[in-house]
């Protein structure tokens, strides 16, 4: 029996309005995009500032209660930061003095957050400037953050985040962290209320009167320049004493470069194949 894809509920604040045919609400798609990003942008309201705050943070989807949960299952978002950073202090204050506003803090004193990530996968070049575009993937999550206080869950999240950067890296290093390292690091657990993704792929699309202009179509190159991140050859640190790059690291670099290249090139050709 085929698996039913779980979706986030469409809330007024999470529903994609413009070009909604590009929207996706599946947990698997949104969680995968969050996990594949190296950084997420975390937005929150600081009562001591006249402007909303946005921070780049390291985050990953996971479940402490169900460690083997699939990326398409209901998951929390774990965010890593310094113990006395603004967002950690604000979450601590919010938790100790929960707001009476049920919309601002419906989770009993947790901090409302918006988490977003975007990746460009292609430069779409059309006949006219107005039809130039990007191929891209983007995901947004809305949730409420609280500080992780359980030492076991904190270790789980720290390992999860480390291994998301490089698979198996946690186990290949000196672990567990020292008491000083544990006390200087805070982890936020974000309970997700809603989320959405927006994706675009394919080639350029121009107006018919431009497509019928043979002089224009023969003069202006149209198509897609694939965009993807390439990981370079690992450079040893000045005190490194390991002569060869470990297989797990070298293999990751090779596989990651191949995966991102294929994804961007596939996205560039997707619409062409669909029309063929």
UniProtKB/TrEMBL annotation:
InterPro entries: Pyridox_Oxase-rel, Split_barrel_FMN-bd. Coiled coil: none annotated. This is Flavin-nucleotide-binding protein. The lineage of its organism: Eukaryota, Fungi, Dikarya, Ascomycota, Pezizomycotina.
């Amino acid at each position: 029996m085929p698996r039913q894809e779980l979706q986030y509920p469409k809330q007024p604040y999470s529903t994609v309005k413009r070009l909604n045919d590009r929207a996706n609400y599946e947990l698997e798609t949104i969680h995968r995009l969050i996990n594949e990003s190296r950084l997420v942008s975390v937005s929150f309201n600081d009562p001591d500032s006249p402007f909303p705050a946005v921070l780049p943070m390291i985050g990953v989807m996971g479940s402490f209660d169900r460690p083997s949960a699939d990326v398409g299952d209901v998951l929390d978002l774990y965010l890593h930061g310094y113990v006395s950073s603004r967002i950690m202090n604000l979450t601590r204050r919010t938790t100790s003095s929960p707001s009476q506003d049920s919309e601002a803090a419906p989770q009993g004193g947790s901090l409302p957050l918006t988490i977003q990530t975007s990746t460009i996968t292609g430069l779409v070049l059309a006949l006219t400037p107005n039809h130039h575009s990007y191929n891209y993937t983007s995901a947004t999550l809305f949730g409420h953050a609280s500080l992780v206080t359980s030492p076991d869950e904190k270790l789980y999240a720290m390992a999860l985040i480390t291994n998301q950067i490089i698979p198996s890296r946690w186990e290949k290093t000196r672990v567990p962290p020292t008491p000083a390292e544990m006390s200087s690091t805070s982890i936020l657990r974000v309970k997700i209320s809603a989320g959405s993704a927006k994706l675009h792929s394919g080639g350029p699309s121009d107006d018919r009167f431009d497509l019928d202009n043979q002089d224009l179509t023969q003069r202006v190159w149209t198509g897609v320049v694939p965009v993807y991140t390439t990981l370079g050859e690992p450079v040893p640190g000045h005190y490194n004493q390991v002569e060869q790059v470990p297989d797990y690291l070298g293999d990751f670099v090779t596989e990651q470069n191949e995966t991102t290249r294929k994804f961007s090139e596939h996205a560039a050709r997707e619409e062409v194949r669909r029309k063929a």
